[in-house]
Structures are given as structure tokens and as C-alpha cells.
Prior knowledge:
- The chain is of the alpha+beta class.
- The protein has one domain (8-88): 2-Layer Sandwich (GMP Synthetase, Chain A, domain 3), CATH 3.30.300.
- It is built from two helices and two strands; from the N terminus they run ββαα.
- The longest helix has 13 residues, at 47-59.
- The protein is elongated.
- It starts with 7 loop residues before the first strand and ends in a 32-residue tail after the last helix.
Amino acid sequence: MLKVDFSDARVKVRGDWTSEGSVLAGTVTSTCHGIEVEIDLESEETPNRVAALVHNARGGCYAEALVRQPVPITGGVKPNGDALDYEAYPSKIDRRPLSG
């Protein structure tokens, strides 16, 4: 939209995450401590035009917006087409025995 020319672009995204707890105990949680985005591009444009391109690209990025500000997550679960209120059930279940 800005008509900023570039010949090549590379983006590296690194996330710093930890998980705690146990799936088997029903206590697993994950936390994102930060995201690093590194943009390398080849361009003959002036720094102010390149900066405007990056500002607008990052400002319009749905993934970056989701990480930047917490938002409500809604939805449902429908096993076999029937609604299931999974929150009404415990997160821990007994493991099935190994079949052999």
C-alpha cells in the first residue's frame, strides 16, 4: 500500500516460553515471557520509508496484536456434533491401560 520497494526480506521470530505442571496430573500451564522479531531486508529506500513500512506491517499484524494484549478466548467443544461443557469436568483423568 505504501509502495516501498525492497528486494528481499527475512523475518526471524523467537519466543521465550515455559511450561509447568503435568498433563497427567491435570495441572499443565504455559507462559509466554516474550517474543523477539528481527526483520532483515534489502532496500534502496530511505530509512524513513523503511521505518514506515515496518511500523505499518507490525501495526497490522494479527499475531503480534494477539501477543501484545491479552484478549478473551471463546469457543466451544463438540465431540460427535454434541456440545460439551468441558469446564464442568475435571482436567485429570485416569490413564487407560496399555493394550497388548
